[in-house]
Amino acid sequence: MASEELKKVFDAEEASLLVKELRDTFATGRTRSYEWRISQLKALLKLTDNHEQEIADALNSDLCKPQLESVVYEIAMLKSSCKAALKELKHWMTPEKVKTSITTFPSSAEIVPEPLGVVLVISAWNYPFLLSLDPVIGAIAAGNAVVLKPSEIAPVTSSLLEKLLRDYMDCSCIKVVEGAVAETSALLEQKWDKIFYTGNGRVGRIVMAAAAKHLTPVVLELGGKSPVVVDSDINLQVATRRILAGKWCFNNGQACIAPDYIITTKDYAPKLVDALKNELENFYGKNPLESKDLSRIVNSNHFARLTKLLDEDKVSGKIVHGGEKDESKLRIAPTILLDVPRDSLIMNEEIFGPLLPILTVDKVEESFDVINSGAKPLAAYVFTNNKKLKERFVMSVSAGGLVVNDTNIHLAVHTLPFGGVGESGVGAYHGKFSFDAFSHKKAVLYRSFVGDASLRYPPYTNGKLKLLKVLMQGGGLLAIIRALFGWSKV
């Protein structure tokens, strides 16, 4: 019998046994110690250092991702997250002292971060190394046992993750489950202490529904149509290069925070289009389908989806640059479209690919109404030197994160939370926010046996009522004196 036939199917029963094993391990307290957490974070860092080229090769195999993008935007960012956790972990774990009130005098109080327990991380295919392990850093730092489910759409990276984590990490507490829909479904049937999912809204709803059966909290890192507002009083070349970097230099547009569409004025649009064309040729040459600096479309399904967006009758005539496709190589050239109808398919779903529509308005301020008429995006960008426009953008546009005069780079700032709002996600992570995402903030109040007052005990009297009412409402010293002498009204 072939080895494949002998391989045991991972079903709900297997998933249940896996969770039980991890719960038993977690119950020993193994993952709670500072020493264990540090050892696992160091192991993760060592894993990344020792296998950098192997990781980059896997990403190239799955996505034809350029070496620079793999090393900088996946491997280096993962290392940065790991080093930040190693540096700050002791501080993150320290209980936070908080004030108490006269109501509980004498007393002291603190907020103690504790691990949630056994958590599930389901990652995405577009950044299959970073988006798999970045949440795992937070889960380990918080002291949890973890199951990682990598995306089957990036199979080489998924297989490598399973091998490397098995070789480097504590497998009694950290496990990888490979597979597709059946395996993910089996995992989602189990009771977890938290589920962290990165992907699209359709699957996000499935994850949330499964979690609701067990009242399991979730973090959902989704996406949306991230807009770029372009004003006219700017350094056009710098702005153009930064828009291109955020769109095509991030996995050829296959990124949750990639610019999804541009809004600019009718008068400024021709200049912007010309600048985008020039810089695209500088970046990728006259035949971008042959460029080694562009990732390919991940698979034939996504190629067909993007082709459908581009071939819609009301859209196909709006292409002002690019549009070339090579289905055999799963490549689509960087494509700019001008004045696409707002009711078109391309403007009503996240593009997640190398197509960039431009909408035009009479006045740049009108762009905020366009953005707010749709679902809240994961990111929103504005390019302007106008102080009032910046302020209005920050105040009126609701998105997971905002960047002024650049794109995507907020992702690398560990002191900022990264997450969505509304349909673009639930919860946030990065830096201490990752630690918090996988921790419970436990309230602890300490009292001694001294200072026991009879106020709250029967028999209840009118005097006790007056004094307790003042105390519970946070009354000042004068109010307390008035209550003691019976001068206050009940």
UniProtKB/TrEMBL annotation:
Q: Which Pfam families match?
A: Aldedh
Reactions catalysed according to its record: an aldehyde + NAD(+) + H2O = a carboxylate + NADH + 2 H(+)
Per UniProt, residues of the Aldehyde dehydrogenase domain are 11-444
Record keyword Nucleus present: no
Q: Which GO terms describe its biological process?
A: aldehyde metabolic process; response to abscisic acid; response to water deprivation
Q: Which GO terms describe its molecular function?
A: aldehyde dehydrogenase (NAD+) activity
**Record carries keyword Kinase:** no
Q: Which GO terms describe its cellular component?
A: cytoplasm
* Residues at the catalytic site: 221, 256
Give the record's keywords alphabetically: NAD, Oxidoreductase
Family membership: Belongs to the aldehyde dehydrogenase family.
Q: What is this protein called?
A: Aldehyde dehydrogenase
Q: Which organism is it from?
A: Quillaja saponaria
